[in-house]
Write a structure and sequence with these properties.
Length: 321
């Protein structure tokens, strides 16, 4: 059994992810992690990027995950033709990224894998508007119907009810059942994985939770959802006005805040915690984490990218069951 293995899909090859990983592998924390780490991606590309970034480390190229070693950089090769260590992001890498995900999901299905970390991808090039984000892409690939995006920080986690969609579509997607689903799944995740019963805050959509419409989203969907959850003995309050919620005196009362749209909760969370957070997809048959940063092509080769999120990811996976 391979329950001690963490798979890492290297994702978009033209990103800062290899640099961020190498900063972790160079740190003493890498040698202390209890799990084996297996990269899924191009062996030759990773070697070239490592040389380009001026890192010297041994890589254990494997053909079977059972050959992976703890405390070593194990890599299961996925073929990828390239000319330079880094190029402009384009559709050229799409097939490679798809192959990386397919191989990883097949390994997870056939083995007991502790978790999957995926590197950043370009939504514009890889997803091509077929999915709002990688959360929905992985859910589709695994047949998971109701995935939940949780931006996790030990002090306060946030969940956007709607993810990467235009703001004009948000109102129509705020539904009682979706709020109930998200809160219920996150509640179970905290209790099962973190051995903690969380306290939830559910934000309103409209300023001050008020609307000039006869029936607001708060009255029609949010309040009924909160009432239902309370009857189910979930520790939840809401709707709460978003404009003052993120004051220090308020956020210290809660573990998780559910917002109605992406930037309503992601903007304050990133302001508070910067890169000390991870994107956890709940509702899959395994734990999936995305470090909380994008491809960041502008920073490639500069060795100045902040690796805090990948450190946070491994620390998190080292603790949970």
């Amino acid at each position: 059994m391979n329950s001690k293995i963490i798979l890492i899909v290297l994702g978009e090859p033209n990103s800062t992810f290899s640099e961020i990983l190498l900063k972790y592998f160079k740190n003493k924390k890498f040698r202390e992690i209890k799990k084996k780490i297996v990269l899924i991606g191009s062996y030759e590309l990773f070697k070239k990027q490592m040389k380009y970034l001026n890192y010297k480390m041994r890589i254990n190229k494997i053909t079977n995950i059972n050959d992976s070693l703890r405390g070593r950089i194990n890599i299961l090769n996925i073929n990828y033709k390239f000319k330079k260590p880094f190029s402009n992001i384009s559709n050229f890498s799409n097939r490679y990224i798809e192959d990386c995900f397919s191989r990883s999901l097949k390994l997870i299905k056939n083995n007991r894998i502790h978790a999957l970390i995926n590197g950043p991808i370009s939504k514009k090039h890889f997803l091509k508007k077929k999915f709002p984000g990688i959360t929905e892409y992985i859910a589709f690939k695994t047949g998971s119907k109701k995935p939940v995006m949780l931006i996790f920080n030990k002090n306060l986690s946030v969940n956007p009810l709607t993810t990467h969609i235009p703001i004009k579509k948000v109102s129509n997607l705020i539904k009682k059942n979706k709020i109930i689903n998200n809160v219920t799944q996150i509640n179970e995740f905290y209790k099962k994985r973190l051995k903690k019963t969380p306290k939830f805050a559910v934000l309103g959509l409209n300023p001050h939770c008020e609307s000039t419409d006869a029936i607001s989203e708060e009255k029609k969907e949010i309040i009924p959802a909160v009432k239902y959850l309370k009857k189910k003995r979930v520790n939840v309050e809401g709707p709460i006005s978003a404009d003052t919620f993120f004051l220090e005196k308020n956020i210290k009362k809660f573990d998780v805040v559910v917002g109605m749209y992406h930037d309503q909760v992601l903007t304050p969370a990133k302001t508070l915690f910067k890169f000390n957070a991870i994107n956890v997809t709940i509702g899959l048959p395994f734990v999936k984490i995305t470090p909380d940063h994008g491809p960041n092509f502008e920073m490639i080769g500069k060795n100045k990218s902040d690796p805090a999120s990948i450190f946070y990811a491994f620390d998190f996976l080292n603790k949970i069951r």
